[in-house]
Design brief:
single chain, mainly alpha, 3 helices, about 75% helix, elongated
Length: about 70
Amino acid sequence: IILLISLIFNMARQVFKYTKKVLKKVTFSFTLFKKELKKASGVLLPHEYEELKIWVESYIIRYPHLSGVV
């Protein structure tokens, strides 16, 4: 049972990491960034989405054109 829980947790973290990778790749477009962020809200666990929003807020500081995406 512990192994199964560990496997599920690792899969969830992989989705979280993949989502960040995708967001980094679409940084050039406000529309795509927002679309991918919306997708993430449906895929990630609630606490992971909150963690992602915190990451996005610090990440977009370097990209003023993404201001207001969150």
